[in-house]
UniProtKB/TrEMBL annotation:
It comes from the Bacteria. The lineage of its organism: Bacteria, Pseudomonadati, Verrucomicrobiota, Verrucomicrobiia, Verrucomicrobiales. It comes from Roseibacillus persicicus. This is SLA1 homology domain-containing protein. Residues 1-20 form the signal peptide. Keywords: Signal.
Length: 128
């Protein structure tokens, strides 16, 4: 029984490390593993989570491959997702001002969507 929990714990721990990328210095002499967290185009600063700490440094210190990866990551991050438009969603296109409401104090008020949600929570209650 304990062996099963140990194996499950190891599996979950290994999943956390699966997304780490190996980063290489511009001269190719040093490498480290970490996850890209942020890139500021204006300053050229890169934030990488490595060893539980956020490392912030200039992109000039990275290899050409790593810089290309950062540019791809930035492009994907800025690209509009398909969920941006409610009309693209099966459930989203049926949501209108008449359907959505929010409890404000003791009364309900109509609400309009400001952006398309990524997830929906549907609740159904039946009484027989």
């Amino acid at each position: 029984m304990k062996r099963k929990y140990l194996l499950m714990g190891c599996l979950l721990a290994s999943l956390g490390w699966a997304s780490a990328r190996t980063w290489t210095s511009a001269d190719g002499t040093r490498t480290f593993e970490g996850d890209l967290k942020n890139f500021d185009e204006a300053t050229g600063k890169v934030t990488v989570l490595a060893g539980g700490q956020n490392l912030i440094f200039s992109q000039d210190k990275l290899s050409e491959d790593d810089r290309a990866y950062i540019q791809e990551w930035q492009t994907k991050k800025e690209a509009p997702s398909p969920a941006e438009s409610l009309e693209d969603q099966k459930i989203g296109k049926k949501l209108t001002d008449k359907v959505l409401s929010r409890l404000d104090g003791k009364k309900f008020e109509s609400v309009s969507m400001t952006k398309a949600p990524e997830y929906y929570l549907l609740y159904f209650s039946a009484s027989w």
